[in-house]
Amino acid sequence: MPIYFLSDFGSADVYAGVVRSVLAHRAASVRVVDLGHGLPPGDVRHAAVQLYAALPYLEEGGVVLAVVDPGVGSDRRALVVRGERLWYVLPDNGLITLAAELDPPRAAWALAPERYAPGPVSPTFHGRDVFAPAAAHLAQGTPPATLGEAVDPEELVRLPLRTVEGNEGEVITFDRFGNAITNLRPRERPEAVHVVGRHIPFMNTFSDVPEGEAVAYLGSSGLVEIAVHGGSLREKLRLIEGAAVDLHGPEAEPPPLATD
């Protein structure tokens, strides 16, 4: 089964490459797919959204190795989680929150690296010394009970974050282009979106409005997103995470976007 590797390690340092090297050494025949390593450092909320977006396209039975771990070396647990479709190796810090909506956890184990990864464990690089060896074992069929003790999957840490099938929600994160990603899964196509006092038309894609104007659309993950054609909505509207979004905004012409 493949390993799907997601992290905030970036590409300017060796961290992601070192983890891949551990995987290659311990599971040479296993295919590793890089989902992305340029996530905002330590931003578990953003990583949870990215994992949610990727999940439907991952092969059933695969192992998700997700390392966005600002609490590395603390008493937070390192986990193996068995979902209905996929395995997860990740910190118990809420990273699994949205993935659990699509792939509910059925069992979980707290990793005990002394059982399967002999040698010193760096307190600052669990991706290399704890998570990667566990992912390699799982991908080769090692029973998870040999990697740690069973824990109640209902007790996994969850972020105050969920998707909503309805008309009222919020901005949950931004992508690297400055587009706002909301938690809304609309029941039917809306005509417009209302956010921070702006009435923004709902279209198919960016180029359906003139350059520099705001547009709402159904993003590739099935969530409503809001952007500026050729610009950053986050900068133009000075949006923040948690900003309220309403799919039934007032019927009015939007004022021009601020340019300062």
Chart the SSEs and their pairings.
Layout: E1 3-7, H1 15-26, E2 32-36, H2 44-54, E3 63-67, E4 78-83, E5 87-91, H3 99-102, E6 105-111, H4 126-139, E7 148-151, E8 168-174, E9 180-182, E10 192-195, E11 198-201, E12 214-218, E13 224-228, H5 233-237, E14 244-246
Parallel strand pairs: 1-2, 1-3, 3-5
Antiparallel strand pairs: 4-5, 4-6, 6-7, 8-9, 8-14, 9-13, 10-11, 10-14, 12-13
Helix pairs in contact: 1-4
CATH topology title of the largest domain: Rossmann fold
Give the full name of the CATH homologous superfamily of the largest domain.
Answer: S-adenosyl-l-methionine hydroxide adenosyltransferase, N-terminal
Structural class: alpha+beta
End-to-end Cα distance? 51 Å
| CATH level-two architecture of the largest domain | 3-Layer(aba) Sandwich
Q: Could you list some keywords that capture this structure?
A:
alpha+beta; Elongation Factor Tu (Ef-tu), domain 3; 2 domains; seven-stranded mixed beta sheet; seven-stranded antiparallel beta sheet; 14 strands
Structure, described:
Helix content is 18%, strand content 26%. It is elongated and about 60 Å long. The protein has 260 residues and is α+β, with helices and mostly antiparallel strands. The protein contains 5 helices and 14 strands. Mean pLDDT is 94; it is low at 249-255. It has 2 domains: 3-155, Rossmann fold (3-Layer(aba) Sandwich); 168-246, Beta Barrel (Elongation Factor Tu (Ef-tu), domain 3), CATH 2.40.30. Strand 4 (78-83) and strand 5 form a beta hairpin. The protein has helices at residues 15-26, 44-54, 99-102, 126-139, 233-237; strands at 3-7, 32-36, 63-67, 78-83, 87-91, 105-111, 148-151, 168-174, 180-182, 192-195, 198-201, 214-218, 224-228, 244-246. Strands 2-1-3-5-4-6-7 form a 7-stranded mixed β-sheet, with helices on both faces. Strands 11-10-14-8-9-13-12 form a 7-stranded antiparallel β-sheet. Helix 1 runs parallel beside helix 4. The termini are far apart.
